[in-house]
Design a protein that fits this description.
232 residues; alpha/beta; TIM Barrel; eight-stranded parallel barrel; two-stranded antiparallel ribbon; 8 helices; 10 strands; 18% strand; globular
Length: 232
C-alpha cells in the first residue's frame, strides 16, 4: 500500500490537471475561510469538481460550523467529499452524517497540543478520516489551514496509532521534509499546499520532486493497513 497525496488550494482546472498528471490522488478546493491561501468561489469549485476524473477525489474544504451549513455548501459545489476545517461539535458531526450519508467526511484536527488526542473518540463514529493540520482555531483571526507550519509530529504519530480511521498529515510539508514525516508519523496520506507553490501558483517542478520523495520513502517502511479505499 502506498501513501496517498492530496494537493490542496487548487484554483483552476489547469492546476487540477497538473496535480493529477503528477500523481495526486485527490485535489482540495478551498471555500471561504477567515484566513489562508487558495480560496475560490463555489462556482469555480463546482466546475473543477465536475471535471475531476475518477478515481481522483475532489474534496471541498469548508469553514461552516453546523451540519446544515456544511451540507448546503457541499450541495452547492457538488463535491463527493468534504474536509471540515473547524472542530465542530460532535453532535453536529453526527447530524451531518445523517444529512449527507453518501458524502465522504474528513474531520480536520488542529494539533496545538496533546489535548487533540481526546477528539478521536467523539468524532470517529461520524467521519471517514481525520486530517492533522497546524491551524490555530483559537487565534484572534482563526487559522484553519494553509499555514505552511509544521506541528508536533510526535503527537501526530500517537494520533495515528490510536485512530481506527485513516489519518492524513498536513502542515508545512515540502520535498525536503516529507520523507522524515512519512517515516516518523506513518500517515495514511499527505495533504499539501504552500510547499509545492511558487508565487501562489502550483509549481510542477516542486510537486514532481515532492512525489518522487514520497515514492522513494515508501520503499523503506510498510504503511499501516489501508482503511480508506471506500473513499475513492
Amino acid at each position: 500500500m502506498r501513501t496517498r497525496v492530496k494537493v490542496c488550494c487548487i484554483a483552476s482546472q489547469e492546476e487540477a490537471r497538473l496535480a493529477i498528471g503528477l500523481g495526486a490522488d485527490a485535489v482540495g478546493l478551498v471555500g471561504a475561510m477567515p484566513s489562508g491561501p487558495g480560496v475560490i468561489d463555489d462556482a469555480t469549485a463546482g466546475e473543477i469538481a465536475a471535471w475531476v476524473p475518477p478515481p481522483v477525489s475532489a474534496v471541498l474544504l469548508t469553514a461552516e460550523t453546523t451540519a446544515e451549513g456544511i451540507a448546503a455548501h457541499v450541495n452547492r459545489v457538488g463535491a463527493l467529499a468534504v474536509q471540515i476545517v473547524t472542530q465542530i461539535d460532535p453532535a453536529e458531526s453526527a447530524e451531518l452524517a445523517r444529512l449527507i450519508p453518501r458524502i465522504r467526511r474528513i474531520q480536520v484536527i488542529h494539533v496545538e497540543g496533546p489535548a487533540c488526542l481526546s477528539l478521536i473518540g467523539p468524532y470517529t463514529p461520524h467521519v471517514h478520516a481525520f486530517l492533522l493540520d497546524s491551524g490555530r482555531p483559537s487565534a484572534e483571526v482563526q487559522e484553519l489551514g494553509g499555514t505552511g507550519r509544521v506541528h508536533n509530529w510526535g503527537i501526530s504519530r500517537t494520533f495515528v496509532d490510536r485512530s481506527s480511521l485513516p489519518v492524513f498529515l498536513a502542515g508545512g510539508l515540502t520535498a525536503e521534509n516529507v520523507g522524515t514525516a512519512i517515516n516518523r508519523v506513518r500517515p495514511y496520506g499527505l495533504d499539501l499546499c504552500s510547499g509545492v507553490r511558487t508565487d501562489g501558483q502550483l509549481d510542477a517542478e516542486k510537486l514532481a520532486r515532492f512525489m518522487a520523495v514520497v515514492g522513494a520513502s515508501e520503499r523503506f517502511f510498510t504503511p499501516l493497513p489501508s482503511r480508506f479505499e471506500h473513499l475513492r
